[in-house]
Structures are given as C-alpha cells and as structure tokens.
Amino acid sequence: MCGIIGYCGREIAAPIVFQGLKRVEYRGYDSAGIATLSDRSLLVKKGVGKLDEVNSQKGLDAIPGNIGIGHTRWATHGGVTEPNAHPHCDCSGEVAVIHNGIIENYQELREQLISNGHRIASETDTEVIPHLIEDEMKKGNSLKAAVLAIAPRLEGYYAFLAISSREPDKIVGARKGSPLAVGISDQGFFAASDALAFPDYVTELLPLDDHEMVVLTHHGAELFDAAGNRLQRDKRRLTSRWGEANKQGYRFFMLKEIMEQPRVVEDAAAQNKELFTDIALDILRAGQVIITACGTSRYAALVGRYLFSKVGRKFCDVVMASEFHYFADSVDKDTVVLAVSQSGETADVIEGVKEAKAAGAKIVSIINRPMSLLEDISNHVIYLNCGPELCVAATKSFLSQLVVFYLLSFSMINAFDKAVNNLKRISSEVSKTIDWNNDKIERLSHELKTKNDFYYIARGINFAIASEGALKAKEISYIHAEGMPAGELKHGTLALIEPLTPVAVICPDDYTYNETLSNAIEAKARGAYIVAISDRDNEIYDFWIEIPKVDELLYPLITVIPLQLLAYHLAVSRGYDPDRPRNLAKSVTVK
Ligand code: M6R
Q1: Residue 117, Cβ density class (10 Å: 0-12 exposed, 13-18 middle, ≥19 buried)
Q2: Which of 26, 297, 474, 586 to mutate for ligand 1's pocket (most ligand atoms within 8 Å of CB)?
Q3: Calpha distance 387→456 (Å, rounded)
Q4: 26-48 residue pLDDT tens
Q5: What residues act catalytically?
C-alpha cells in the first residue's frame, strides 16, 4: 500500500526519492508522484501507473531541488486518477503533502474547508491536510506549528510528510498509527513509511512514536512530542536490511519465490532453540492462546492450531485479525496472542495486537520483514528468514510460517531438535514435488484456463491448504474459487458442482484418505473434474498430481506446492501478471 519517503540533504533529492520509492514498490500501488523545493518554489509531478511508466512520462527523477518527498498510492478514497495521486497541494500551491493511512473524518473537514473558500482538487481524504496547513500558515504559524495544530483534528491514522515553499529548508512529518521511520546519514536525512526505502548509506534510525513529529533539515532530524517539546532519543543502528531482490532469470517473482522453497524450509528452521522453548512454555502455561492473522498468514495459523493440538495437546483459537476487536473482551493477562504477518505491517493485525497488549496479553509475533510495527509491540519475535517476498501473493512466507508452527509445536514436547531434523529431510521432498509437477501443472492450466469456478477440498491438517489454494487462484488468476473441509461440500456447495467443474482434492495417503476420497466421489458423481493431489493413485482421479510420501504432520508443506504452481500457471495462461494482481497490495496498511 502507500509508500512514502522524504529526503533533505546536500544531494539532488528527486533521484534519491525515486530510488527509495522503487525499493518499496513491492508494497503495491497504482500511481506515484514526487514534490521538491527548489529556489523557493514547490515543484510537483505525478501520474497513474508503475513508477517507471510515470517517470518516463513525467520525469519524476529529474525535478531539481535538495528537498523532496515521494509517494506511491494504493487507492482507498477516490479512483486511480492523476488528480488523486499524491503529493496533494493547498490552494496556493505552496504546501505539498504525502500520506499513508486514512483520515476518517475527512468528509467533515472537507466540507468545512470548502465553506471557508478552499478549492479541493481530488477525491482523496489526504487533500484536507495541505489545506488545513495552509489555514494555519496564513495565521502566521510556522510549518511545524501548523502540523502540530492540525494533528489533533485528524481522526483515523496517518504518517504524512509536508513541505512548504515558505519554509524551503525543511520537511515536517507526523505519525499516528501508521509507520514512519527516520533515517540518518552523512549524505542527508530521511523519513519513510518503511526503513527498507532508505539507501544503503543510511546506517542509523531515530525511533519515532505515535503522536510525535519529526523536522528534517540539512542539519539534522529533530523529534517533537504532540505539544511541540523537543525529544531526545538515542539513535538505533539500522542492522537488518534486505538486499536487492531480482528475478534471477525467472519470468515472474512468484515463480522464483515458489522455486526457492526447498531452501526456505532450511532457513526458516534455523531458529533459536531457547527462544522457541520459552515461547512454547508460555503457550502451554497460558489460560488461553489466540492466533491472529489475515489471508495466507491465517491459513498458516490454522495449520498451526492443528499442530498445537496434535503435538502439544494445547487447544487454541485462530481469530481473523479484522474480527479480533469483536472478541477482545475475552483477552486478559493470562492470554498469549500469536500474531502472524509476513509484512509485520498489516493494519488489522496491528490493531488487534495493540488491543490485546493493552489488556495485558503476552504478544508473540511471527514476521518476515525486518523493522516492522509489529516487531516494536511484541514481547517475542520469531523471524521467518525467507528474505524479500515481492510477489503480492504469498508463497515462500507461507511455507516458512508452517515451519515455524511445526517447530513451536514440537518445542511444546521438548523435541525441538527432532523437529529440525525432520524438516531437514523435507526440503528435498519439496524439491521433488516441484520437479515432478511443474510442467505437468502448466499443461493442466491450459486445459482448465477457461473454467470460472474451482473448488478445493481436504480434511484435517490439510483443510487450510485447500483454502490457501483457493485464495491463490482467486488473487492472481481471477477465478472464483472456494476451499473447504471435504466433509462440508455436501452441506451446500455440492449444489454448485456441474459437469466438468474442477474440484482439487488434497488426499494424501494418511488417516483422512478414505473419507476425503468419498467426498471426491460424491463430487465426481455430479460430474466434477477431479484433480487429486496425493501420493496414492486412484481410478476416480481425472488428473493426478503426484506428491512424495511424508510424515502426516508435514503434508501441508508438500500439498500446498502444486496449488501454488496451479494458480501461477493459470494466471500466466490467462494472460495476467501474477506479481501485481489488480486491486491488491502486498502490505495492507489500512483497516
Ligand atoms: O503481511 P501479512 O502476512 O500480514 O499479509 C496478510 C494478507 O494480506 C496476505 O497474506 C494476503 O492474503 C496475500 N496476498 C495472500 O497471498
């Protein structure tokens, strides 16, 4: 979702800001823009499309000036249009603002501004900010004082950066509920929604909390509280960063990330035994354990719930993060909340975790991206170690999450080392699954690419894999797909099965095989085209995706692979870019 970055220093700002935006491109966006201050003038360029497209049309990286702010927008309020792209300006063209978050009371503010004579040029919630600043500056306030004055009027959550040609030596930033990292270097000072936006020479961070603001000048970065008092903070070394990720010869990041999975299993299993033992003890001792997550991470959590019960004999619940608030009454200091989030930035997860923390719960986060908001509010953090995942559709982070849950469940029975050994062996089975099936699934995708509805069924530990397979198909191939426990099919969805409707049946040769097969036969009797993901052949399959035989608790790490490949090949054979699905963002920073 929206990415913001500002630079103030000796260098020409626009190319630095542009490269910063490129580094946060993975978050997902639909338009982009940059504003700079040069010779006491405000210069703004913006447009719709990918950064390189907007740059070649508008010359984003060629704007002069040593102070610049840049933005990639993921539309929330107002369509994907040039006027709605950031930066947004005031009536006089003196103030420019970029923003990540949502101003919930923007309609009310907008009406007040219009009745006071302001001309509003966009449909966005953001645009109220530069106009409010304009009013404050007209009263004689400095840019910093103007931001301080308007911040309490903004309901919702935000991280924004503002510049004004009246004060052409600074950038003023403020945050409430959305991330804003402040970076320090010899070449200048930075603020961004994501420290990964900073160039490599930024080696130090200044921590900025909610309701605080930052003023960047050529001389430094100063932090202030909501009353405008100067804050003294120790700098933190910027230790973790992700290297440049490229496609390494693959056509799409998604395929590259699927192919990386044998290695990913090993990297995710390289964990600290003491940390896992401590967390496992906390889980076992807790009065209740809740796992919260969204999307793919939630499906990993559902596998985790199963493992906790089967291995650790500890029941826990999985609450969709966007619904967590409605169950928050039951959270107390005897609760352990595990928050699972690849990005560590998902607004729904962050909100639930904050609420749980306020109620006294212990927070354990399972995160991939370093330096995230979630990291800051957790008691313990487990990293997935799978490196940058740039395709919007999660693949390798999901596998890593499964590895972490497997290790946690075995840590509950004091068998961390055994779990690590089991996982070492599974890495080659993941490779085999890819090698045996990639070409075959590509052929299948051509056969099925015109189908509009897919169903995915499984039982037990693999049920969540059926849902994950369906989610992958929906988000990148734009096919209507549903995943469900195989036993549920006959309770309604079976009515939708028509001749040749594809039904993917995940039926490893384990204790669920016979019952899952019975459900597949019921679907077949209604004409379904059965695509089986199994290590055991059966005459009822129309298409068999063969997988290796593994321990029953490890099947999810294997059965998900063909479903990722199927979604990928379906997307490509239908002519879509799997890395950048329409309407979706990698980091979902709005509620
Ligand atoms: O970064 P998170 O793991 O918190 O993201 C959660 C979901 O937004 C994410 O898994 C989403 O469902 C993916 N696009 C699925 O591929």
Answers
A1: exposed
A2: 297
A3: 29
A4: 777 889 999 999 999 999 999 99
A5: 2, 586
The type of residue at 433 is T
Q: Please give the structure tokens belonging to residue 52.
A: 């390189």
Contact of 122 with 44, CB cutoff 8 Å: no
Strands 230-231 and 236-237: unpaired
Ligand 1, atom 11: nearest CA belongs to which residue? 295
Residue 292's identity, in one-letter code, is T
pLDDT digits 0-9 by tens, 231-285: 999 898 886 666 556 788 999 999 999 999 999 999 999 999 999 999 999 999 9
Instruction: With beta carbons less than 8 A apart as the criterion, state whether 20 and 192 touch.
Output: yes
Q: Which atom of ligand 1 approaches the CA of 394 most closely?
A: 16
Q: Helix, strand, coil % (nearest 5) of the chain? A: 40, 25, 35
Rounded CA separation 547/398 (Å)? 19
- Are 66 and 218 in contact, with CB atoms under 8 Å apart? yes
Q: Which option is the CATH number for 3-243: 3.30.1060.10, 3.40.190.10, 3.60.20.10, 3.30.300.30? A: 3.60.20.10
Domain boundaries along the sequence of the chain: 3-243, 253-573
Sheet holding 167-176, edge to edge: 88-89, 95-103, 156-164, 167-176, 212-217, 220-224, 230-231
Rg (CA), the chain: 25
Closest atom of ligand 1 to CA, residue 586:
14
- CA nearest 151: which of 170, 171, 176? 176
CATH superfamily ID and name for 253-573: Glucose-6-phosphate isomerase like protein; domain 1 (3.40.50.10490)
The per-residue pLDDT for range 197-214, each reduced to its tens digit, is 899 899 899 989 999 999
CA-closest residue to ligand 1 atom 8: 295
pLDDT tens digits for 292-328?
999 999 999 999 999 999 999 999 999 999 999 999 9
Residues 6+ apart with CB under 8 A from 579: 252, 253, 254, 390, 391, 392
Q: What is the largest CA-CA distance in the chain?
A: 81
HEC secondary structure over 565-577: HHHHHHHHHCCCC
